[in-house]
Write a structure and sequence with these properties.
20 helices; 697 residues; alpha+beta; 13% strand
Length: 697
Amino acid sequence: MLTVVRAGLRARWASFLGGFVALALGVGLLATMGLGLAATSHAPERPPERFASSPVVVQGRDRLALDVRRGPVTAPVEQRLDRPQPVDGELVRELRARWRVTASGGPDAVGVDAPAAEVRALVGDRARVLTGAERVRADPDPERDARALVTLNALLGTSGGVTAFVSVFVVASTFAFAVALRRREFGLLRTAGATPGQIRRLLLAEAAVLGVLASAAGCALGALGGPLLARTLVDGGLAPAWFTVGGPSWPFHAAFWTGVTVALAGAVAASRRAGKVGPTAALREADVDADALPRGRAVLGTGLVLASLGLLAWTCATDPSALLKRKTYTTLPMLLITGAALLSPLLVRPAARLLRARGAVGTLVRENSAAAVRRTAAVAAPVLVTVALAGTLFGSATSVTRAKETEAREQTNAQYVVGGADLRPPVAAPAGAVLSATGATSVFVRDGDEAVVKYGARAVADPAAFAELARLPVTAGDLRDLDDRSIVVNEEFERHRVGETVEVWRADGSGPVRLRVAAVLALGTGDNGPYVTRANAPGATLDRIDARGGGAATVRALEASGGTAPSRAAGTTRASRLGMVLVLGIALVYTVIGLANTLLMATSVRGGELASLRLAGATRSQILRVVTGEAALAVAIGTALGLAVTAVVLGTLGAALATLSAPVALALPWGTVGAAAGVCGAVAVAASAVPAWRLTR
């Protein structure tokens, strides 16, 4: 058996080259992503910045702790405040009387040069005492590194998942198509006395050898790619400056055994099919595929399509806002893409029949594509995956961004809007002008008896001016009723009926205060948060001014405020954009490998067919046009199927936006989709033309 395996690998090295490269690249990417994930999970402690020279920091209360129900008992739940409360003045005087105290950056914390135990004894429960690495909590935005690591974790995890998904698909397709091309070989082995079990073991042994060699090469690539990834993320501002990879070995073990498993899993279905080849297959010459879609593949593909459509419909009906989140529109369409790719042999024949081309070349392209279903589907399926990923990822992200931008524009009647972190609102509005200044804050609300929810809110300086200029999606109540004893909520609140009372804790943890619901807003794209007056937003700084009327005096007043044109729409962040580009790049690279490998194998075994065409009078140019036309038609079919999947996903997203009373601004990224399809088409034509040119010399 091993002798036959070695001989087969030597004789068919070109057929296995594409699978080897795809698997090695996949293992390398998995190892690289694993190293990055390990680095995000075991990040070193960042040294403090604000009080680096103080061994002890006394900080005002920075967390809100509320008791909630946890089964039969109650337990405290903490939520971090927007800004810590100031350290009590009397406590600061006591500290200064005994030790050297350093104040820096505000009244919320002071540095103390003293033994930690003595400071804790003096402070008691009046404030928090921070030592060692905990002192970083007193820095400005102490959680920025943690947020960056969470974003990196999601980015690398998604990329690793897509890598595994596409590598399984490409390797399985490669093995399946290679088995289809070796039917006569397996028939000869059966004629020589080989049993179906021996045929299956032969293929599995080839897959195991390929998997081990490719996985070892992939781990070497991962060792080189890990440090390069870390430098790229740091240089791009997506990771903290101290971010490095290395140390844990589990990413290499996980990547290696994943590669071997993928190779064996890709060969299992093909080996079962090969075991069913009878001795009479050695006598076959026809290339018409009568059983291109096995029953198991048909059942699995149909199940995935129905499951994905059901999940999309259920999510749209029960939680439409989830479809606007990157995690959902990145992962959920993959089920539909996989199902459509599995069913591609069922779809390519009727699609090929739609070609209406005149002349012998067009007829041969159409009939050959419809007859050789396996070959056509093997080319169309990876193109479908790439085009669908490009359309759903970039289309969903662009559509959500446009919806947010449109919603932001439609929510104000102002002629002028400025924003900025250091905004200085005018002391008085110019004659004939209406000015509404707002700022960011937060409120904490109990969600039933089991959770505490933190909502990003807006603080309103002048409720009357705000009500006059705002054009929010009010579903009940009136914005003019907002005052210091009321709140404007959205439909996500547990209590969202006008007149109901909501118990609220303010941004600094003070409260609770009971506020009456003055108006209710539609949820929209997620930016329609609650609104309160500045009396219920301690410490909030104004960062936006909406203005109308007043002419040139208003313009001068806004220019003097130091603001700029704001963008409240939460567009595609740099990390999200990089993640989508990375995912699409992985899919495109795998598609190129799969297309080149499939067409090189498929065209290389068509020597007899092409020679028959020459004997029938076809010129060399006509034969090349037939072969490249078949490749181009297969790419076009895959592109059309990918666009159909994209249309389903974007249509569901549009329905979700409409359900949320948000603007429906769907956008298909024609440039990205066209570029992906163009690359696939160019590779397919080249990979089919080169061996055809050699065979027709």
